[in-house]
From TrEMBL:
Family affiliation: Belongs to the ARV1 family.
InterPro entries listed in its UniProt record: Arv1
Membrane topology: Multi-pass membrane protein
Name assigned to this protein: Protein ARV
Example of a GO cellular component annotation carried by this entry: cortical endoplasmic reticulum
Location relative to the cell: Endoplasmic reticulum membrane
GO biological process, one term: intracellular sterol transport
Length: 242
């Protein structure tokens, strides 16, 4: 499962209605003896969070389909603290893919220890480059959103929530590993689709977190890609394989 648990009650504004994004004080009410009643949103008159009754697999499928309701459930109404671990694992997947491509392009098969250490260093280097690229991508997004909607990012907690949402929405990079394992002639096309899926997930995460329209998140992502590609260009200027 997702390893998340819904919480029944909290202070005002701790939860969000997954349908209209309005604040709510509780997700459900416990009448004891196993009797639970899902709270109804005072704004849209729909259940605040219908997903608290759903199996985690169904929630995951809805998240993969980029449904805003599933994103709101995960971001606002659950306890989930896998952002850092997920980010590291995704970066390791990306670093491994780049390292593998680098080894494929190398004709040196010498088993010498020095060569093995050099190959190991190449993996660490790819991990560092992938980390810097993702950091620059996120910085570009934050700069754009702060410039376009400064009222949305007034508090430190707003930045932290958006960062967590972005980190969670990069889960699509986990598909890089099967794409490499089952390598075939269409692998480059698969990688392009994975990249597009991650960007769509990023856009939905920004839209849900800040309650924006569909255009502004894509504008922020576009600027983030420009900054990311600028970092790639810099590494290429330094003569590094990326």
């Amino acid at each position: 499962g997702l390893g998340v648990l819904p919480r029944p009650m909290a202070a005002l504004g701790a939860y969000r209605c997954i349908e209209c994004n309005e604040e709510a004080t509780e997700l459900y009410r416990d009448y004891q003896r196993g009797v639970l009643r899902i709270s109804i949103c005072k704004s849209c008159q729909k259940p605040v969070d219908k997903y608290i009754e759903y199996d985690p697999v169904i929630i995951l499928i809805n998240a993969v389909l980029c449904k805003a309701q599933a994103y709101r459930h995960i971001l606002f109404n659950t306890k989930i603290n896998i952002h850092g671990k997920l980010c590291i694992f995704c970066l390791l997947c990306e670093a491994y893919l780049r390292w593998l491509q680098l080894q494929d392009s190398s004709q040196n098969t010498d088993p010498d220890d020095l060569i093995r250490y050099a190959k190991e260093w190449d993996f660490y280097r790819m991990f560092g480059i992938a980390s810097l690229e993702q950091t620059s991508f996120f910085i570009g997004i934050f700069i754009t959103l702060w410039w376009m909607t400064p009222e949305m990012l007034k508090r430190k907690s707003d930045f932290i929530l958006l960062l967590k949402a972005l980190l969670l929405s990069t889960y699509g990079k986990l598909l890089l590993i099967p794409a490499v394992i089952w390598e075939h002639d269409y692998t480059p096309l698969c990688l392009a689709f994975i990249k597009m899926f991650v960007l769509i997930s990023n856009s939905q995460a920004i839209r849900v977190t800040l309650n924006l329209n569909r255009i502004l998140p894509w504008f922020a992502i576009f600027f983030g890609l420009i900054l990311e590609n600028g970092v790639v260009f810099l590494f290429q200027k330094l003569g590094w394989d990326v």
